[in-house]
Amino acid sequence: MIYKLNSPLKPNLSLFLLILLIILNSCKKDNLGKEKLSNNELTALKEWQSKNFDQKSILFSSMVPNWNNIYVNELKDKIVYEVDLTSTDNAFITNGFLSKSDKNNYLAKSRFKLLLFKDSKTGQITDGYYMTSLSDEPVHYTQVNNFTGYIYFYNRKGNFVNGWIFDAGKALQAISQGTETGYRESVNAGLKEKINMNDFGNGRIQVSAQQFCYTGQTPIYGESCIQPEGSQAPVCSTYIKGYNYTRFCVDVEIPTDGTGGLIPDPNNPRGQQPVPGTLPTAPDDGTPPKNYGTDPNCLNCQVPNSVFDQLVADAVASGLTVSPPKPNTVLTTPDGVTYLGTITEIRDASGNLVASFFTPNATAGPFTTGYQYSIGNKGPDGTGNPNNYTPIFYSPSGEPIIFNTPPLLTGGGGTVTYDFLDEFYSDEAINASDINLNLPALALPVFTSNGYNIFTSNRIQSDTYTESHPVSQKIIAYNPWIYRAFIGANNTSVKYFHLVSKGLAGKDGYGKSIGAIGEGLFAQRVTTEYPTSPGGNMRIGYWAGSTHIDALQEHFLPKVGGMYYGIMINYTDIDGNPKQQKMEYPDLNHNTSMEIGRIAYEVKTLNVNKNSVETLYATFQEGVNQTVHRSKINGVNASVLVFDYNCWMKLMSSSYRQSVLNTISNIYSIKNSSNEQVIFIRIEKNLWQDSNKAYFDLIDKIKDL
Question: Contact 280/173 with Cβ under 8 angstroms?
Fold first, then answer.
C-alpha cells in the first residue's frame, strides 16, 4: 500500500548524510558469513575455485578456503570476492631468509587469500588469483589506504605474477616475476660491482642512480610436526616449501591510479620510464645463510671433502640424521650419463630427505674428486618429494642452512637419480654357505626347449599381471623366455613394463626392463649350446633365500660305466673368444644313478653409449661380488658373470684394465675341494643390441593395450 504525505518533506542535512553513508557502505560487505551469500552464489564460487585453481601448487597446496569469511568488494565493473585461506602447515612468507627468532613474527604477518572476479554485467566469474600480504595490518584488494608492507599476486597455478612494496599507502617499488636463471645472473660478480650490494639476497641493498634490474630469491616456509611416542607435545621443524624469484627494476617510474595511490592489480603493467631516485632499503633482520661450499652464488652446492665433515656435524647437532656413506653408487644425470661414487643422505626427524650429496670416484663430466655435490632431495628414483620439501636447519651459531643444486646437474629442469647397487648392501653380507637352493621336487616345467625343462621363478611378484592378461600374452607370443624373466625379476614386473610402455613409470624403467629382457635372452642362448644331451633344467629368476639368481642352469649327470658325466662350462677369454671347461667332480657325494650339476649366471646388460667407464667398472665389481657369492651357495657348483661385449671392450680399453685383470686373476684362483675352478667370465656379443631391439618391439605391441 502506498500512502501520500499530506505535508511537504522538509530538508534535513543530517538525515541526508546518514542515508548517504548507509548507501555507500552497503557496497562494501565485510566478513560476510555463508548465510549472507545466496546458496547459488556460494556454490558457484566453490565450483569455480575447485575447477580452476591448482590444488597442488607448492605454496598453496596446504591451504583451505574459509567460505564462512568472504569479503565482497564491489568495484566499477566487477565484484571481487576475497576468501581467506587457512594454512594447515603454518605456511608463511618472508622478505628474506629466516632467522630462528623471526618465525613467529613472520607467521603473524603473513596473510593468504583467494581472489575471485565476477563481471558485474554478465554475472559470470571471469578470473581468479591468489593474493598474499606481509604486514602488521590486513589489506583488501585495491584498498591500500595507509598500508605498509608487501603485497604479492599469484596465478591460479600458484606461480608468482607481480607484487608491490608500500609505505603508508604509497607504492615504493613494483615487483615482477623473476626466474632462477635471472637470480643466478643477478648475483654474479659483474652485477655486484654495479649495484654495490651489502648482504645481497637478504633485503639490504644499495643501488646507484643508474637504472638496473635484478632478481632476488625469497623462500616460502612451512612447518612439519610429528608426535614422538610417549611425548606430550609434538616436535615441529620449519622447512622451505619453495622459492619466490622476484625481479626489481631500479629507478623505474611507478604508475598510479591518478589519485596518488597505486592499484595493486595483477594485470596492471609496471612502469618503464626511468626517473631519478634510488631503491629504498627493504627491512630484514634475518641472518645470512651459511655456505660450506666454494660457490657463493650456489649455497652448499659443491663442498670440499675437508669441510663436509663440519656440515655433517652441524646437521647432526641440529637434529637431522646423516646416513653412513654408501660407496659403489651409480649416479645418472639428466642427459643419461652415469658416474660412480659415494652417496650421503641427510634426513629430518620424520625421515624426509633433506639433501643428498655425491662424491665421485674419478674426475669426469661435471664432477671433480675431492668434492661433495648437492644433487637435490628427490631420492634415488628422482620422483620423491613432489612438493620440493626442503627443511631449513641451523648451525650451532644460529645461521640458517639450505641446499641448492648446481645448475649443471639439472639439465634444464631434469632430475638426477642414483642406484645403490643393492647387492652391496643386502645379501652380500650373508654367509652364502648358509643358503640352500631348496629346489621344489614336484614343480613342473612351463615348456621345454632343446632337451631342457624351463621353469618359472619360485617367487612371483604379487603386484603384476596374471599370465592370461593381454599384456602377458603379447610378451609370451613374442618370446616366452623374456616373459619368464619379467615375472622372475627382482626389480621390475610385467605390470611395470606396461607402465613403461605408456610413459608412466620412472626414468629407470628402461634400464630395469633391459636387464630383465637380457636375462631372458641369455637363458635362451645357453640352452642351445653344446652339450644339450642328456639335457637339464633352466630356472629363470630363481630365489635362494634373499639372493636372486638371474639364471640357474642344471645339467643332468648320469652314471655310465661307474663314471658320472661332468659339467661343461661355456665361457670366454678376456677378448670374448668362446672357451669350454669341464668340471669332473661337481658333487663328491654320489648316491644316485643321476646327479645334477648347477651353474648360476649373473647377467649384466648395459648400453655402452650411456654408461661411463666408471659405471662399467662399478658394475663389473658388483657382478664379481655377486658371482663369487653365488658360487658359495649350497648346491651351486659354478658361477658365471655375463657381460655385454661392447661394454667390456670399452672397460678394457680404459685405465681400469689392469684392475680388471687383477680381479679376474683373483677370482679364477678360487677352487672347489677338488681344486677345480668355479668362477668364470663370459663376454656376450650383441647382448644389449638384441635386448634393445626386443624392448622396442614389445613396447610397440603393448603400449596401446
Answer: yes
